[in-house]
Design a protein that fits this description.
There is one protein chain. The protein is α+β, with helices and mostly antiparallel strands. It folds into two domains: about 5-90, no CATH class; about 100-180, no CATH class. The chain has five helices and eleven strands; from the N terminus they run αββββααββββαβββα. The strands form three sheets. It has a four-stranded antiparallel beta sheet. It has a four-stranded mixed beta sheet with strand order 8-9-11-10, covered by helices on one side. It is globular and about 50 Å long.
Length: about 180
């Protein structure tokens, strides 16, 4: 793999700063692809309320990284944490838990684009997941789903109304996180 193919960026919510990292060529002892989060990358200072119960191993790992000083309060970004050194990670059991694709577009009156459904079907098939989630910036209904006949895959479409006050948007994001957690 070349470095240009393996680099990734992850933007924190609310137009937050961007974390940087890259996929590594090696796999962990469980066969999962390792990845590196670069030193100085921002980390959310808060977690959604469902994180400790829905993702307990990840939640405890986060707490351990903070306790060990690998994640600390940022000296350059108010309200953020940051990594103090490169951190190498991989999924504990090597199995993806979910696939979520955030679409920065609104649903059309005729519905969501079919191309998005086919793209999510490909993701679910490649990752061997029974559920996939498309999240749109606006839509006709908060949630809809499509069961793919003979494939055993359900594609969920979620709409977040982003033109509301921030408190309401955060409430809707929490509801979305709870709906996602049900499918894990």
């Amino acid at each position: 793999m070349s470095d240009t193919q393996t680099e990734f960026q992850l933007r924190l919510p609310h137009r937050g700063p961007t974390a940087h990292g890259r996929l590594l060529d090696e796999k962990g002892t469980n066969g999962a692809q390792k990845f590196l989060v670069r030193a100085g990358s921002p980390v959310r200072s808060d977690v959604v309320p469902s994180f400790p119960t829905q993702m307990p191993s990840s939640y405890h790992l986060r707490k351990q990284l903070i306790a060990d000083g690998l994640i600390r309060a940022s000296t350059t970004r108010s309200g953020c944490l940051e990594t103090t050194q490169d951190i190498i990670c991989n999924n504990h059991d090597g199995v993806p838990l979910a696939v979520v694709d955030a679409k920065y577009k609104a649903e059309k009156p005729a519905g969501f684009p079919d191309a998005d459904l086919y793209q999510m079907l490909a993701y679910c098939t490649a990752l061997n997941l029974a559920d996939g989630h498309l999240v749109y910036a606006r839509g006709n209904a908060p949630h809809g789903s499509h069961r793919v006949k003979y494939a055993g895959i359900t594609i969920h479409q979620h709409a977040l109304e982003l033109n509301q006050n921030p408190t309401k948007v955060l409430e809707n994001i929490e509801k979305l996180a709870q709906r996602l957690a049900v499918t894990l």
